[in-house]
Amino acid sequence: MIRPFFISFFLLVCFYSFGQNQIDYEKIEVDSLWSIWQDKTQADTTKLHAIGFYAWRKFVFSQPDSALYYADIQHNLAKKLGHKKYIAFALGTKGTALWVKGDYSKSLSYFQENLEVSKIVGKKSVIAGVYNKLGIVYGSLGDNIKKIEYYQKSLKIREELGNQHDIAIVLSNIGVLYQNLDNTAKALEYHQRALKIWEKLSDQVWIAVSLAHIGEVYEDEGNYDTAFKYYKKSLKLGEEFGDKNDVAVYLKNIGGFFKIKKNYTKALDYYQRSMLLTKDIGAKPGVSQLLISIGEVHLFQKKYSKSIEKCKEAYQIALSIGNVFIQKEACECLYKGYKGLKNNNQALNYFEKVSTLNDSLKSEEASKKLQQMEFAKIILKDSITKAKKARLIEVTHQKEIQKKNKIRNISIAIGTFILLLSILLYSRLKYVRKSKATLQVEKNRSENLLLNILPEEIAQELKDKGKAEARDFDNVSILFTDFKSFTQTSSKLGAKELVAEINTCFEAFDSIIEKYGVEKIKTIGDAYMAVGGLPVYSKDSVKNTILAALDMQKFIIDRALEKKAEDQIHFEMRLGIHTGAVVAGIVGVKKFQYDIWGDTVNIASRMESNSEVGKVNISQYTYNLIKNDPEFNFESRGKIAVKGKGDMEMYFITKNT
């Protein structure tokens, strides 16, 4: 069970191992740190320390983008002045902020750079701290082998230094790792080792942390009463010696205990107390998790509207901080809430979101499967090589026999024997050729399958490098379609008829976008998504996307006329397009796919939902890119209120006849 509260806390503690000058920056008011930074009379090192701690303490866990901004300020000045220590400080802040955002690959890159600079600085305690953070990031990436490797490196340095405090921190982190691996016996062992050190040091704050961890292990084992005893002890010490972050966690743990025991009144009481503290410290991930916990209690109470209210709020916060794990939990809660209200359309909507988010969370498994495909390709290549060698041996053997036959002037009987042998060799050669051809067919089938799943450039990158990196694209055009009143219309068709009709439409769409060089991204139910200008940009991508959209809409209109003439059920379609920047990469596990993210996607979806049947609706930005093209006519729709975006200019577009 992953518990982000504590993992964040360990990152925080390890970060402060950098050491400070004569000013204790942990005790200064956060806003005062900003004043120190702006004070021109202060020494450069003092200002660098102040801006670093300002970024860390005020923003890193609640507003990671702001933390990145201020860390850049520190990093740039430190580079200008040649202060390696503060360069490493800034890199650590960036790595942590990106970890909070869930961008683990970039986070790992900054921490690796942080490690190299820290080695130059040469302070062992700092290097140990970076090892610890690398372990945490590798854990987030699902690489538990690397995670334990870096924890052990950190532990080794700290044991050499004899710093019992830092040793206990690493022991606790290893305990958390074993918790996440569901190895409760090992988790308990490491947390108890850490607890003994804290007790020797009489560190009441960390004693409370270890007690809470041990309580979590007992909870994972289903020993709830024992877990509750440890939770109560941790809360008592936390309220006496700890800070708000500690107490918020301990209150949440006890709230969870009462939820399990179905004492919902007490559960809500503890969750609300934890919420007050969590909001006060500005920990958005913690706030969203607590909202989900409260929403789940309301689910158990069958107060579905209240549950939906809390979980929607949690979902919006999770979206704002880019935390996919919490988004998934919130959508699961919303699915159950709408299901309880018997609102099947909304329940299905959130169920589909849960599936999509699950794919995002399991993207690493997709990468592993792609590596397996690459391995299979290597095996195939080896098989072909062996077949070639066998053929070469046979041919060489045949030549040697022919040479001997000439020298010996063999008799007719031996000649007959050689003829038979030649026939056998020829059969063998045919067999080798047939095997080679079969292997080539299988190879082509594998590569065609890959090309059917991924764009050609991405598939080639996978074959060349064994992986495909996510990329930023500045100016792509996203196309969304959706059938009007799909649920009501589909209810009038049998299952086979419905699937056949959707398949007919989507096959036509696939053919149209291929004609215009537009890339299909995915289908979700009755929705179809494609994008122009990706993965290879073209100056005509905007125009081609619009031409494809107009052809798609024409196909649906023509098909509707045919269906009407035969008195059959037919679909009507809305279509919208927006152009802008996206991030594109591979997501998914069993059915991995090439997908795109960004606000451009959301706006394109809004263009579709605000379109009309039989029309192609484009955004102001797309209109500005294509407005001078004489091939098109435009109908201004004025400003239209768009959910979550305010008023937006839109245009209907048609083709000149």
Secondary-structure map with pairings?
Blueprint lengths: L3 H12 L14 H9 L5 H16 L4 H18 L2 H18 L2 H18 L2 H17 L3 H18 L2 H17 L3 H18 L2 H17 L3 H18 L2 H17 L3 H18 L2 H17 L3 H18 L2 H17 L3 H18 L1 H46 L3 H42 L2 H10 L5 E13 L2 H5 L4 H22 L2 E6 L2 E6 L8 H25 L7 E15 L5 E5 L1 H11 L6 E4 H7 L5 E11 L3 E10 L2
Parallel strand pairs: 4-6
Antiparallel strand pairs: 1-3, 1-4, 2-3, 4-5, 6-8, 7-8
Helix pairs in contact: 1-7, 2-3, 3-4, 3-5, 4-5, 5-6, 6-7, 7-8, 8-9, 9-10, 9-11, 10-11, 11-12, 11-13, 12-13, 13-14, 14-15, 15-16, 15-17, 16-17, 17-18, 19-20, 23-24
Quick structural gist:
The protein has 657 residues and is of the alpha+beta class.
Written description of the protein model:
Strand 4 and strand 5 form a beta hairpin. The protein is built from 26 helices and eight strands. Helix 5 packs antiparallel against helix 6. The two termini are 62 Å apart. Helices cover 71% and strands 11% of the residues. Strands 1, 2, 3, 4, 5, 6, 7 and 8 form an eight-stranded mixed β-sheet that branches. It has helices at 4-15, 30-38, 44-59, 64-81, 84-101, 104-121, 124-140, 144-161, 164-180, 184-201, 204-220, 224-241, 244-260, 264-281, 284-300, 304-321, 324-340, 344-361, 363-408, 412-453, 456-465, 486-490, 495-516, 541-565, 599-609, 620-626, and strands at 471-483, 519-524, 527-532, 573-587, 593-597, 616-619, 632-642, 646-655. It is globular, with a radius of gyration of 32 Å. It has 657 residues and is an alpha+beta fold.
